[in-house]
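Chain and conformation:
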Amino acid sequence: DTIYFDHNQLLTRPGGYPGSSWHCHPIGAGRDNCGVANLTEYRAQPNTNLTICYPEGFETGKDGGLKIVKGSHLFRDPANCRFTTDDEMEQQWLVNRVHPVTGAPLRIERLSLPPGSIVCCLSHAVHGVAPKAADRKTRWCTLFCYKKQDDLTAFVQPPRAVPPVWALKAKRGALPDILQKLLRHS
């Protein structure tokens, strides 16, 4: 009852795609750039949950693949984690940074996924996309984004990309029950 559909979009990467720099997305509600919260506080905060679907998968290297830093979501640091290269990320933001729960050093994970893979993560985890070599076929991907309300305030950032006709149908009760639930007004 506290998860709301936000948007869906294609994240295709054609041959020659230059990659995206390191970043994470702000969550708002005064929860960004405030340092690490304890797990009880963190779980109560609003989150943006991503389900990223890769029907054809991808390889590490020059295949337009996802790169992510596990545990970085606990830092909520969108102002300071923006770097162009992996080397910059490793030599600056990751230096002496450890997972707040496990104590393991944070590190870059360069994913390699078989066809039909799904990645679930939080938008405020530090991530980037590797370049796609010019001679490679387009990497297809779709993103489904859901938002969790703040447990203390019930605040949910409003959706940015729900098709207006779907929003109207949800309001009228003209969608299947599962879609009705996902697209209801927050």
Summary: Residues 164-172 form the longest helix (9 residues). Residues 49 and 72 are 14 Å apart (CA to CA).
